[in-house]
Each structure stands twice: as structure tokens, then as C-alpha cells.
Amino acid sequence: MSKSDLLLEVRDLKTQFFTDDGIVRAVDGVSFEMKRGETLCIVGESGCGKSVTARSILQILDYPGRIVEGQILFHRVSQVNGSEVRETVDLVALGSRGPEIRAVRGKDISMIFQEPMTSLSPIHTIGNQITEAIRLHLPVSKYEAEERAIELLHRVGIPQPADRMGTYTFQLSGGMRQRAMIAMALSCGPSLLIADEPTTALDVTTQAQILDMMKELKDDLGMSIMLITHDLGVVAEMADDVVVMYLGTVAERGGVVEVFHDAQHPYTQALLRSIPKYGLRAKGVRLDSIRGMVPDPYSRPDGCPYYPRCDHMMPGKCDRISPPSFKIGKDRVVRCLLYEGHDVADQKLHSNPSGNI
Ligand SMILES: Nc1ncnc2c1ncn2[C@@H]1O[C@H](COP(=O)(O)OP(=O)(O)O)[C@@H](O)[C@H]1O
Ligand SMILES: [Mg+2]
Hints:
There is one protein chain. This protein has helices spanning 50-58, 91-94, 99-108, 126-137, 142-155, 161-164, 174-186, 204-221, 232-238, 256-261, 266-273; strands at residues 6-19, 22-35, 39-43, 65-80, 83-90, 109-112, 192-196, 224-229, 241-246, 249-255, 326-329, 332-334, 343-344. By secondary structure, the protein is α/β, with parallel strands linked by helices. It has a single domain, classed as Rossmann fold. Strand 11 (326-329) and strand 12 (332-334) form a beta hairpin. Helix 4 packs across helix 5 and helix 5 (142-155) crosses helix 7. The site of adenosine-5'-diphosphate (ADP) has 15 residues, from strand 1, strand 2 and helix 1. Residues 17, 19, 24, 26, 44, 46-52, 62, 65, 297 line the site of adenosine-5'-diphosphate.
């Protein structure tokens, strides 16, 4: 893969919450990359730092959260006067306010959530909201924006889209509301759509329809999707690549086939064993049947965060040494001392990337 196929590189990201009770190391040295046009799934149990990773990318962390270390390199390709311009932007360096990060949020990267009312207003019609969002991003007339909004509603599978422009969110079903939120997120033509558990609250049939629609949109619009889920069935269905997170770290990452058929980290292996035999698609497989509990976020164990639950734990080692990430194959990384001897991946890069603005 050439560098130009990369869309996003997260390098040694650390995000912490400075609460009155102590520091929560929500994301504790996460590295992964995304290629242009792919679907990357981030999977892991509740509380492992999936949402905080996503929110760090867009710099929309809740107080008292802060990125304390790392880089998030976004490789932007834009058209300026008919020619292609490529640049690399470190989103961390942009900070959480200011016109540059707002431009990224409005134009390059959109996010959708489990709860559609996070991004939709209850007191405006969906047509109005999407039209306004389009006019904020594009220099088009009201009429053109309305035409575009209808086209977007059509694309996300809302029937009779022209008639639906005048409806309010309370008049829509959960699935239709989710579709309207996706239309809103697409209004700026993003190159990356981050979807944080977008179908978790929906019934299985609606979930499948929305995931299919997202797949089609990705191909039609040439977007990339970062899909966050705790459901391994969704990962199997959607992912090109997978990042398996555990307690603020990346336990393992790689192509979906490799990770599912040849899981290397004891945590990934346990996750896969936790799937009931009757199949992945069986009503939202939950990742809650692994022995032991996820430790309290305020008091992480020394060494590997997974050692208290691990069947392969090596006393005197795993409880003392924080494992580096080992490169065990092409695009395959595992953060576990069982793989000592392999090359270490994600060595910190101290130089600035070229073309940074
Ligand atoms: N606003 C906050 N204040 C304090 N801790 C937080 C806050 N938001 C998230 N966290 C902590 O960060 C960790 C990761 O959370 P999150 O990314 O939401 O997990 P998930 O993988 O379920 O999306 C959790 O331990 C959570 O308690
Ligand atoms: Mg979450």
C-alpha cells in the first residue's frame, strides 16, 4: 500500500479525563491507520475507549477530557481550481476550537451516534435541517439545497423523500430517524464517516437494512467508514480491517479475515469464543461473557491491562511489563508479550510529517 492510500493515521493517542476522583486514562497509547475507501471496525467491550477515540479525532471530547499525547494525521485530498491538492493535517495540533478544526468537522469528517437526537433538532423539520446544513457547507441557492436534501433522503432510503421534507423527528420511526441523521451527516460530502454504535438501539431487521445502506453509500460516494461496535456480527458483516480495543489500548489489529480466523491476542480469542454457536447474526451478540471483569478505569493494573483475565498470563512478566505492539505480519499487530521477538510496531515518530499545515 502506498502512503497516498492512507486516509487517517492515529499515532500513540492518549486521552485522559481529569476528574475530581483522579485521572481516567480512557485512551492509553492507541495507534492504527485507515485506508481510503475502507470500512474499519473498532470493537471492544463497553468502556474500553471506543467513543473517546472517535471523539478525540473530531476534538469533541466532553469536559474534563483532554488529548495529552499523540498525533492524528488526516490525509486530505481536495480539488482547488480543477487540480488535486494533497495535504496532511495533524488534527491534534489544530486544538478543539478555531476555524480549522471546524472546517474538518463540517467538510471532511462527519459523525453519527446511537441516539439520532444528538444531532437532530426536535423543533425543525428534517428538510429544513438538512437544507440548512447543506447551505452552511456549499455556496448553493435555497432551491438547489432543497433538491440536494431530497436526493440525500432518497439515498438513505427514506421513501417519498420530497413529502418527508416537512416532517418532524417525532413523526419518524427509530430507523427512519437514524436514516435522517445519516443524511444530515452526508450533507457536507465527507471523506470519512465515523459511526459510533449507529444501529445498537434498533431491531435486528432495521439494523441490517441500515448497515446495507451504509455499505452502498460508502461505495457510491467513495467514503471511508469508521464503524464502532461491540457486536462481532456487525464486524463480520461490515469490516475490511478491525481494531480490537481493550481498556484504552489496541489489543490486536488487522484484516477482518485474519483477525477472525487467526486471532492472536488472548483477548480476541476469548471474544470470539464468547460468540454463541448458533451464529454471529443471532440477535446482537454481546461481549460480556468473558471471565472476569474489566478493571476499574481509575486503577489500572501495571503491565498488560488484560493480564488479570488472561489464560496465558506469565507471572512476573505480564503483571509488570506494559507490552509493546508487535508486528506479526502484513498490517497485523498484536500487543502481547507472547509475541516477543517480533519487530515492534508503531515506533514513535518524532519528526513532523511533511506537508503539515
Ligand atoms: N466525561 C467523562 N468523564 C470521565 N470519564 C469518562 C468520560 N467519558 C468517558 N469516560 C471514561 O473513559 C473510558 C472510555 O469510555 P468510552 O470511550 O465511552 O467507552 P466505549 O468503548 O464504551 O465507547 C471509560 O472508562 C469511561 O468511564
Ligand atoms: Mg461508546
